[in-house]
Structure formats: structure tokens, C-alpha cells
Automatic annotation (TrEMBL):
<dbReference type="GO" id="GO:0000976">
    <property type="term" value="F:transcription cis-regulatory region binding"/>
</dbReference>
<keyword id="KW-0804">Transcription</keyword>
<keyword id="KW-0238">DNA-binding</keyword>
<dbReference type="InterPro" id="IPR000847">
    <property type="entry name" value="LysR_HTH_N"/>
</dbReference>
<dbReference type="InterPro" id="IPR036390">
    <property type="entry name" value="WH_DNA-bd_sf"/>
</dbReference>
<dbReference type="Pfam" id="PF00126">
    <property type="entry name" value="HTH_1"/>
</dbReference>
<keyword id="KW-0805">Transcription regulation</keyword>
<dbReference type="InterPro" id="IPR036388">
    <property type="entry name" value="WH-like_DNA-bd_sf"/>
</dbReference>
<protein>
    <submittedName>
        <fullName>DNA-binding transcriptional regulator, LysR family</fullName>
    </submittedName>
</protein>
<dbReference type="GO" id="GO:0003700">
    <property type="term" value="F:DNA-binding transcription factor activity"/>
</dbReference>
<feature type="domain" description="HTH lysR-type">
    <location>
        <begin position="1"/>
        <end position="59"/>
    </location>
</feature>
<comment type="similarity">
    <text>Belongs to the LysR transcriptional regulatory family.</text>
</comment>
Length: 292
């Protein structure tokens, strides 16, 4: 027996003094209202209503039970309201600062269909993990090694010059020859988003192995400044293909190395992590630059 539904029928019928009118008030057929009240009476082992051909009246037992039935209905309605508010309460999610506005907006919009009202908080890699650890956000999309990550984003080198036919660029070609020692050396600029060991250290080791100067592999704190440097010079920006397209740069794969960003979700609460991971992976992948 659905106790709340039965109590709703009982309160409505007793209040209107009629099965027909009471059933209509709670939008159920008269026969359903009758069965629910009968089930309630059987459950309690006593009559709630006295039925006659002209009206319905409360029995003494029914008068005693009516206030409790009303309280139960009010409590159920309050619980439903609280549940709806909880579903719509903003769910703070730390996301990479490289996420584009439109893909992020689509993620927020489509997450509502999954009863998740996302409130994105852009932050750098270290900061995102810290926000999740200190519970300043419910969950965070964090940088992880790409091999076993749910989202993998290949990284290439982007430049302002159009290379024509797409071809790999070899980092060793950035090594200055004798005639170029006094000239400004081309650099590889690493974004703050990629200032993590599985990306930064691999690029630095590659640069060292092919003879680049330490100053030719640079971690930048500002994507705007780094992009400006690339637009004004022959420097190269380490980026995903989608990000290069967004910045109006031309991308080419790195000849000597396969390097990628990796992402996963972390949260102090297992349920919070599950809620984010239960979203369609492509929604989050689009924000991170995963090629669709």
C-alpha cells in the first residue's frame, strides 16, 4: 500500500464529504479513492469513514487519525520540495582554464537534463586538485597521466606561419646552428595547463636530448601572452588541435614524441565523483579538446 497516496485520498474525501468530489480534487478515479481508503482502514484495523448513499462522514477513529494524515502529506510535500531544491543546487566543479566558453556552456545546459546544475570554476591544474581536497568544490577535473585516463587530448606544436601541407615538426630543427648562435632562438612555449610532470618533463627531456638550450623550452603563466609571442615570432605553442584552431594558429604534430593531456574526475565524496562521471563522456571531452 502507498501510505501517502492513501492518506491523500482519505483527507480529500473526508474534507469534501464525498468520494466523487474528493477523488476529483486529488485527480484520481472514484474507484481508486475507494480502494485506497479501504486499504488504509484494513491496515489500521478500524473504519475511518461512515459511508451512506448521500454523504461520507468521519468515524471517531477517523477524526483521531485525520491530523496525522494531514501532517504526513505535508511532510511528504516538503520532502519533495527539498529534493527538487537539492537537485537544482549548484554543483561546483573545478575545470581547466583552457575550456572554451561555448563547450562549457553546452556542458552546463545538457547536465541539467541529468539533474545536475553545474557551476564551473576554472582553475589551473594544481589549484583544481586543491579545491577538491579542501571541499571548496564538489568535484574537479584533474590532470593525470594520459595512458589510463578517461579523456586523452593529444598535444602538438602550433605556430602563426602556415606550413602548407600538414607535416610533422621535429624539435631538433629548433637547435641553432653556428651561424645562428647570436640570433634569437625559436622556443617551445608550454601553457600553465601543461605544467605537469607527464607533459612538461617529457618536453624538457626531449629538448635537452636534441641539444636545445634550457631557455628554448619555457613554461608560461599566461596563455594570452604566450599566444601573442607566437603571433609575433616563429615561436611554437604546445597545444591541442582544437585549441590551436580556436587561437587561429596552425598546428603540426611533434615528430619525435607522442605527448598528451590526460584528465579524470576527483572528489572527496564517491557519490559526487559518480555523478560527474555518469554524464555522457563526450560532453566533458568537448570542453577539454578531445577530438570528436
Amino acid at each position: 500500500m502507498d501510505l501517502i497516496a492513501a492518506c491523500k485520498a482519505f483527507v480529500a474525501v473526508s474534507g469534501h464529504g464525498s468520494f466523487t468530489v474528493g477523488a476529483a480534487a486529488v485527480r484520481i478515479p472514484q474507484s481508486v479513492a475507494s480502494r485506497r481508503i479501504a486499504a488504509l482502514e484494513e491496515h489500521f484495523g478500524a473504519r475511518l469513514l461512515t459511508r451512506s448513499s448521500r454523504n461520507v462522514t468521519l468515524t471517531p477513529f477517523g477524526r483521531e487519525m485525520l491530523p496525522s494524515a494531514r501532517r504526513l502529506i505535508e511532510l511528504a510535500e516538503a520532502m519533495e520540495h527539498d529534493a527538487e531544491q537539492a537537485r537544482l543546487r549548484p554543483f561546483r566543479l573545478a575545470v581547466p582554464e583552457i575550456c572554451g566558453t561555448r563547450p562549457l556552456a553546452r556542458l552546463v545546459a545538457e547536465a541539467l537534463a541529468h539533474d545536475l546544475n553545474l557551476d564551473p570554476r576554472p582553475a589551473g591544474p594544481d589549484r583544481r586538485a586543491e579545491l577538491a581536497r579542501t571541499l571548496e568544490v564538489r568535484a574537479a577535473i584533474v590532470a593525470v597521466p594520459p595512458d589510463d585516463s578517461p579523456w586523452r587530448v593529444p598535444l602538438d606544436l602550433a605556430s602563426q606561419a602556415d606550413p602548407g601541407a600538414v607535416q610533422s615538426i621535429y624539435v631538433e630543427t629548433l637547435r641553432a646552428g653556428r651561424a645562428e648562435r647570436d640570433a634569437r632562438r625559436r622556443r617551445v612555449l608550454i601553457q600553465a595547463e601543461d605544467d605537469v610532470p607527464h607533459v612538461r618533463d617529457r618536453i624538457r627531456r626531449l629538448g635537452h636530448s636534441v641539444g636545445l638550450q634550457p631557455a628554448q623550452v619555457v613554461v608560461t603563466s599566461s596563455l594570452v601572452a604566450a599566444t601573442a609571442e607566437v603571433l609575433a615570432s616563429s615561436d611554437l605553442l604546445l597545444s591541442s588541435r582544437s585549441q590551436a584552431d580556436e587561437l587561429g594558429l596552425h598546428w603540426r604534430p611533434i615528430g619525435e614524441l607522442d605527448v598528451a593531456r590526460g584528465y579524470d574526475v576527483t572528489a572527496r565524496s564517491r557519490d559526487d565523483r559518480r555523478r560527474v562521471r555518469s554524464l555522457p563522456p563526450a560532453l566533458i571531452g568537448r570542453c577539454l579538446g578531445v577530438e570528436q
